[in-house]
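Suppose you are handed a protein chain with no further information: no name, no annotation, nothing but its sequence. What can you learn? This example shows the usual starting point.
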Amino acid sequence: MLHERKAGSMKHTPPSKVERSSVRVDPARVQTTALVIIAFAVVLFLLVQARFLLISLATAIILFSLTSDVINFIARQRIGPVRIPNWLASLAAVLLIAAALITLTSILVAQLNTVLVTTLAYAERAPDAIAALFGWAGADVEEAVRNSVASIELSGYLRGAAGGATSMTQASVLVILFVGFLFVERVWFQTKLSNFIGDPEQARRVGRIIGSIIHRVNYYLLVKTGISLVTGAMTYVLARAFGLEIALPLGVITFVLNFIPNVGSIIATGLVALAAYIQLGDPWYTTVIFAVAGTIQFVNGSIIDPMLMGRALRLSSFGILLSLAFWGAVWGIPGMFLSVPIMVMLLVVCSHVEALRPVAILLSREGLPEDDGELPPSRAPRP
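A reasonable first move is to predict its three-dimensional structure. Written in structure tokens, the prediction is:
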């Protein structure tokens, strides 16, 4: 019996060793995971610390890509026997971008100042107007809301908004400089790309991928600009029809906020309704304005916008929300504006890198990322 017990204990010993060996941790895998986490933390730290420079650079690249194809087209044209030089077309593009940026910045700063002045004028009426919305809940609730709104210090927010206007002007100057240097470098880009990669065929493929990114981002921005312009104009007409004092600022702010996916239209509609209620003080008119503004946003943003985008922007809605949250947390409001173009770039790159194709499948709307056959011709990308 004793021998059998010893034999039984010896029988169970090997499985325990196998079990211990099966849960052994691979040191190389742990080291790789730790390095990935450290690298992500370092990149995230650099993104936050260099946000002003990186936001300006990203904006410059987008503006550069918007005009790159136009420059290529102009440079191929002839006026009689004379062909337009590439440098002249590039110089005209830089001057045009500089004038557009300075004009747009001036308009935004002027409208922001108007909103700030109007906010100060409405500050005294805002607590009573907002508290009246909660009158149905009783006098105690109404008084509590009035005290809560009155305790908000607007001076800090106004100083932050004024500082943002100053940063916007500085960023515009930096963007113009970046765009100028990008146009200077575009002449040698294809040569640098070929020499860097070494393989001419692979260099042409990378050039086609860059062309696909430029095409998709440009199409998105052009459609979004048109839809936002129409939405802002309709909001301005609505505000003017009801006699709102800040009709033009509301239209401009609506135009700008519509570039922020999903969230921007909600904020713009809420601002229109809030301005209407503070000025008019009539719940019925405010409800009508809110309903009309919401209908404008819904029709333009949820019906016409997807119809025009088609398959050019095949991004997952959930992925857009994640990108919006991430870049909003890293770069603030500018990051929200840039979230979709960055996601388009990430989707195209992951679609053509075999190891990253599963990421592209998750980011795409239908689980069908771009194939090599959908890339534009190799002559299209001339950054």
